[in-house]
Amino acid sequence: MTKPPTIRDVARLSGVSTATVSRYFSGKTDAIAPRTIESVRQAAKVLGYTPSEIGRSLRLAQSRVVVMLVPDATNHFTADIAVSVESALKGIGLSMVLANTGENAAQQDRLLADAQGLRARAIVLQGAIDTPRLRELVAKQGNLIFANRRPAQGIVAPYVGIDNFQAGLAVGRYFIERGYENWVAIHGPRHYFGSTARLDGFIAGVGDASRVLQFESPYTMQAGYEHACRLLDLAPKKYSVFCANDMIAYGFYRAAMERNLRVPDDLVIFGFDDNRLNEWLAPWLTTVKVPALEFGPAIAKLIEMPKPGFEDGRSIILPFELKVRQSA
Amino acid sequence: MTKPPTIRDVARLSGVSTATVSRYFSGKTDAIAPRTIESVRQAAKVLGYTPSEIGRSLRLAQSRVVVMLVPDATNHFTADIAVSVESALKGIGLSMVLANTGENAAQQDRLLADAQGLRARAIVLQGAIDTPRLRELVAKQGNLIFANRRPAQGIVAPYVGIDNFQAGLAVGRYFIERGYENWVAIHGPRHYFGSTARLDGFIAGVGDASRVLQFESPYTMQAGYEHACRLLDLAPKKYSVFCANDMIAYGFYRAAMERNLRVPDDLVIFGFDDNRLNEWLAPWLTTVKVPALEFGPAIAKLIEMPKPGFEDGRSIILPFELKVRQSA
DNA sequence: AATGAGGATGTAATCGTTAACATCAGATGC
DNA sequence: GCATCTGATGTTAACGATTACATCCTCATT
Fold it and tell me: Mean pLDDT score of chain B, rounded to an integer?
């Protein structure tokens, strides 16, 4: 209704200068007389004053906002990472803005511009698409952090996440070790950095690219379902399928169920991420566990690091784990 | 690295005043000569200039940020609403900040203060907890919007969502119609406004409160699971269970599976929300469909509405739908 | 009593943008 | 030729906070 009280209103009411009020709200209380502190506190309370983050940001040329760009906020794994980051950031006094790129390069670039406009303290990208604008921003701002997928060749910026190649490798080796046949890899979109790292690792693991059926796929249940339908109807076999994430695996599984196929007797399915739904809704899914909740602290640490930390592209590699369950 | 260019830098480079540059970036281009437009455009591009949202917000005493407070961002239904709102807001030039209250009153109040500090254009609450601070804010700022759960008695603010009482009523009537017995209601926490509206509706629907076993529960799978274990072990019966949301229903179902109970022969389960996972992972779940994707446009409309819209607590009631599947 | 130290507080410039108002050049009307 | 108008652009005072620097006061010291 009425516009919010400013530092000046508080100063006037408590009979001090704006400088003193500012000191009070920036925690420099040991330089203020106790009586003054009390009177400022009172006045602020009476007026219902909250310092304007905007005024402060302008003055300090530094906002407390961190922008997180995600390809799909309804992906449970993505959401887990976002929650973890948000809560870690709050711990160091920062807010998180979440925005969806919808796996769309133009949309991503628009959002990057927005983030720049907000003078974001940092920009965290879960699944970035390689565009000129992105490269420009990395070079000029140097406050971008790549989460879960490494930046493309030639982009120097810190990365937080597992080693996707090694994870793919581990799955591939597991396939060999167990003697699985009819390998299928449903991998993520090629425009995502590191989306293919998993695939490359997997191929290195099984040791023979020519025997791997490869499909490029969006990271959705729908896509997994469709790939499965095509595959299972055209050339039914006992496939061993490595899916780029759990969503794709869910979709694949559903198609298999509809055809009365059983895991692991008629079909082997591997997912990736081990999002928290698995425990409840897909306790059958063998997958690679990525520690979603460790992203927040790692990213917070990176942001608090003095600038040089960004510039030399320091990264934090998290551990992964093969989670073997019924489907393999 | 280097600090970002300002409007002054652009003005200097293109040889015009800051006012002209400002006009260009606020879209008042029809008052500028075409040649000037071009030179400003060029200069901005060369410098990589993006207007500072902070400077603009300060000057306009109005930010373009909308804060959304959610009790649990990893709940898929919540995430769907958030995505819908975010995308609708982007359509009208606003950004969304997402924050988790973690179902915690103190945390909610802290976040409300943060939102106030950001001078948020609006604050959207998915599941608000009734606190003095909340009431104060509603009265003083008048820019709060309640989503999915109505505000408590005495709080006048717009609401977007279904009529929870009517939905509960429909479920209760369906129970009667189908002749279900052994009614159980696992309802949400009492401190959520409207959490009990569903329960009250349900009781009105079945018509006899004394025959309804009631449990208060957090909105989690874990909680649903635990309630189910206790109930099914202590006094096994063919229960007909109305869960406060789908998560609770998932947990309940898992416990039932572990005991080799089948739906609907040994057990009837109703969920609530019909989040998008159901289609893929829980195609058996009977539930009340709440149109998550309609929240965004509705909320955007409310925010664009001139102030009086807020003040008289105008609301948008969305339709719901009983989605009967295998579990009932 | 004069000096100085040091603690508490005030003054004022500044951050990047917008917009009301001022200015100015050229076109128009008489 | 002068007044007037119009369209393009410039000048400048905000917006709300922070902070370097200045000031003032009180004591302690000599």
Answer: 91
Is omega for the bond preceding B51 within 30 degrees of 0, making it cis?
no
Contact B95 A100 (CB under 8 A): no
Which CATH number goes with the domain that contains B128? 3.40.50.2300
List, for residues A93-152, the tens digit of each pLDDT value: 898 888 888 888 988 998 898 888 888 999 999 988 999 989 988 888 788 999 998 888
- A98 CB-near residues (< 8 Å, 6+ apart): A68, A70, A73, A82, A86, B82, B86, B96, B97, B98
Report the C-alpha gap between B202 and B192 in whole angstroms: 17
- Confidence (pTM): 0.88
CA of A48, C1' of C7: distance in angstroms: 30
pLDDT-based confidence at residue B308 (cuts at 50, 70, 90): very low
Whether residue B324 lies inside any domain: the answer is no
A123-133 per-residue burial string, b: 16 or more CB within 10 A, e: under 16: bbbbbbbbeeb
C-alpha B297: how far from its chain's center? 12
Give the residue carrying structure tokens 């019924």. A326
Please check whether strand C approaches the CB of B302 to within 7 Å.
Answer: no
- pLDDT tier for residue B62 given thresholds of 50, 70 and 90: confident
Can you list the residues of chain A whose pLDDT is less than 50? 308-309
Question: Residue B287: what pLDDT?
Answer: 96
Q: CA A17, C1' C3: Å apart?
A: 30
Q: Which residues of A touch B141 (CB under 8 A)?
A: 1, 4
Whole-number distance in Å between A32 CA and D17 C1': 18
**CATH code for position A47:** 1.10.260.40
pLDDT at A308: 46
Contact A76 B74 (CB under 8 A): yes
Domain, as residue range, for A305: 63-161+293-318
A40: which nucleotide lies closest, measuring CA to C1'?
Answer: C9
